[in-house]
Amino acid sequence: MKVQVHVSLKPGVLDPQGRAIHHALEGLGFDGVTDVRVGREIALEVADDTSDEALDEMCYKLLANTVIENYRVEKLS
Amino acid sequence: MKVQVHVSLKPGVLDPQGRAIHHALEGLGFDGVTDVRVGREIALEVADDTSDEALDEMCYKLLANTVIENYRVEKLS
């Protein structure tokens, strides 16, 4: 089963990487960009009988830092 | 307009970060994980009149390294 975990910074948490990209886009002449936030997208290939609880446990134990990050699990197949 | 750019390593390109996560998941007792790949998800807030060409240009000029990475642009609103 293919699973995608989307990890993004919580609103309000500073994102220096996003800010750097924002500045670089402006430097390249792209106007009209007002915000940039960078997250991670982790593609997992897991056994078909993996439970939702196990996937959730993977996220909060390892894949995301729940103090500053939100995560969303998406089953693809 | 909200735009999400999904950047992932091309197939065949080594992913040491994904491999480290894979090993860590096994160490935590999660069996049945057969593959882990890590990508980036860049959330942009851009002017509504931003053209598809401009978005594509942002990707190949800055957001993705097209030698080793694929990207996909998704307009959310």
From TrEMBL, chains A, B:
GO terms for biological process: 'de novo' IMP biosynthetic process. Keywords: ATP-binding, Cytoplasm, Ligase, Nucleotide-binding, Purine biosynthesis. Its main location: cytoplasm. Its EC number is 6.3.5.3. It is found in: Cytoplasm. Pfam families: PurS. Coiled coil: none annotated. The keyword Transport does not apply. The keyword Transport does not apply. It catalyses: N(2)-formyl-N(1)-(5-phospho-beta-D-ribosyl)glycinamide + L-glutamine + ATP + H2O = 2-formamido-N(1)-(5-O-phospho-beta-D-ribosyl)acetamidine + L-glutamate + ADP + phosphate + H(+). Pathway: Purine metabolism; IMP biosynthesis via de novo pathway; 5-amino-1-(5-phospho-D-ribosyl)imidazole from N(2)-formyl-N(1)-(5-phospho-D-ribosyl)glycinamide: step 1/2. GO terms for molecular function: ATP binding; phosphoribosylformylglycinamidine synthase activity. Part of the FGAM synthase complex composed of 1 PurL, 1 PurQ and 2 PurS subunits. PANTHER family: PHOSPHORIBOSYLFORMYLGLYCINAMIDINE SYNTHASE SUBUNIT PURS. Part of the phosphoribosylformylglycinamidine synthase complex involved in the purines biosynthetic pathway. Catalyzes the ATP-dependent conversion of formylglycinamide ribonucleotide (FGAR) and glutamine to yield formylglycinamidine ribonucleotide (FGAM) and glutamate. The FGAM synthase complex is composed of three subunits. PurQ produces an ammonia molecule by converting glutamine to glutamate. PurL transfers the ammonia molecule to FGAR to form FGAM in an ATP-dependent manner. Belongs to the PurS family. This is Phosphoribosylformylglycinamidine synthase subunit PurS. It comes from Croceicoccus marinus.
